[in-house]
Amino acid sequence: MINLSKRDFLNLANEYDITFHESLILLSSILNRSYSELFFKNNFEISKDSLNLLKSYLLRRQLREPIAKIIEKKEFYGINFKTTKDTLDPRPETELIIDLFLYHYQNKDLPLHILDLGCGTGCIGLTILNLYKNITCDFVDISEKALKITKENAENLKLSNRSNLIKSNWFSNITSKYDVIISNPPYISKNYPLDSQTSYDPEIALFSENEGMSDITQITSNACEHLKPSGILFIEMGFDQSEKIKNIKTKLKLIKIEKDLLGINRIAVFKL
Q1: What's the CA dihedral at 77, 204, 246, 181 to 10 degrees?
Q2: Inter-axis angle of helices 20-31 and 6-15, to 10 degrees?
Q3: What's the CA angle centered on 116, arms 246 and 193, to 5 degrees?
Q4: Long-range CB pairs of 269-272, under 8 A, 24+ apart, other chains included
């Protein structure tokens, strides 16, 4: 074992031009120790292999790879979810869907059947299952690799018994009707320039045709066929798509467009 002093650790982080905060997140993942525990230590006991792994993590971060992709973990609504190169990292703005769900369904005992459409890590549906003990959820994604990550997250949270995984291109393999449909679909225009960190997410989870509106339009136009009476669709959108959302031809009624914490129109709420 190597006794790595905090000063040596700081010097190592500086070599890669990585902040102490980010470097300590990487180290805590490698050592499987909490950030707060390591923060107050003056020395770190670390094996040679772990030190080499830390250096490789620091190099990846220096190249602007997101921390979540490096440690394969991202927090969403207070829960840690596994995430990989095959899934979209959970975003803080998407937590607004959970807030809206809690507002519309204040009775935590409701036995709802919901659909997480384009589930990725499963973070939205699994968070709801964690909050409501009588809800069941079908998790749908076109990517088998994404569904595998959702399965792992469900198992880690002990929610597998209320989770059902379906491989489908949106509604193509869906026959059920649901009380609620939730979706964070691809909505970025293909000619929109991405920052270097977003580029590490899978393209299939980011980009959509027709200036980013193709998948949103497909979902909102067909959701009525899969919602029960008075069912609700919560769907995330891009910063400049609210007017286009209002012009989509659908049997659903647009009841609200909710802004995120930055004041950006983020979630559209439709009702059958």
Answers
A1: -50
A2: 110
A3: 60
A4: 269/100, 269/104, 269/232, 269/233, 269/234, 270/220, 270/223, 270/232, 270/233, 270/235, 271/230, 271/231, 271/232, 271/233, 272/223, 272/224, 272/227, 272/228, 272/229, 272/230, 272/231, 272/232
pTM here? 0.94
123 and 182 Cβ atoms separated by less than 8 Å? no
The two tokens of residue 258 are 């909710």
Residue 121 φ then ψ, to 5°: -75, -15
d(CA 268, CA 265): 8
Query: 40: which 2 tokens?
Result: 């107050």
pLDDT digits (tens, 9 = 90+) for 190-225: 888 878 778 899 999 999 999 999 999 999 999 999
Q: Is the dihedral of CA 89, 95, 100, 102 positive or negative?
A: positive
Question: Residue 82 corresponds to which tokens in the numbers above?
Answer: 């596994």
Tokens for 86?
């095959």
